[in-house]
UniProtKB/TrEMBL annotation:
Keyword terms of this UniProt record: Membrane, Transmembrane, Transmembrane helix
TM helices/strands, residue ranges: 12-34, 46-65, 77-99
Molecular function, one GO term: sodium:proton antiporter activity
Species: Sphingopyxis flava
Identification of the protein by name: Multisubunit potassium/proton antiporter, PhaG subunit
Keyword Transmembrane helix belongs to the record: yes
Taxonomic lineage from the root: Bacteria, Pseudomonadati, Pseudomonadota, Alphaproteobacteria, Sphingomonadales
The keyword Protein biosynthesis is assigned to this record: no
């Protein structure tokens, strides 16, 4: 059986709150994924929930290991940078692929590019 680390009470409370808040934020993003109807509506909720939820969970990890090792542990910052950079890029690639597919198939409910501008004469 694995025993938990001996964190001071103040650190255990901070780590616990950060973990619960991060898990709750991720859960809310997941529920948003289930509630929204179309693909184009669904792509936003999970990306926001994952990014913020992962940041809070990584902060809890940083606090926990910094207290246990009596020195700042910042390896999690690199993980946070990768999550923060790759999640929006993946979102954009998936959305563009879906728009391309829907436009080539002639689907009726495809987002527009925005208002059309006429070139100045």
């Amino acid at each position: 059986m694995i025993q938990g680390p001996d964190l001071p009470t103040w650190a255990a409370v901070i780590v616990g709150l950060l973990l619960l808040t991060g898990a709750t934020t991720t859960l809310i993003g997941t529920l948003g994924l289930l509630q929204l109807k179309s693909f184009y509506e669904r792509v936003h909720a999970p990306t926001l929930g994952t990014t913020l939820g992962a940041a809070l969970i990584l902060a809890a990890s940083m606090v926990s290991f910094s207290v246990l090792q009596s020195r700042p542990v910042i390896h999690e910052i690199l993980i946070g940078v990768f999550v923060t950079l790759t999640t929006p890029v993946t979102l954009m690639l998936l959305a563009r692929a879906a728009i391309y597919r829907d436009r080539s198939e002639g689907a009726s409910r495809v987002p527009t590019d925005g208002p059309r501008r006429t070139p100045p004469a």
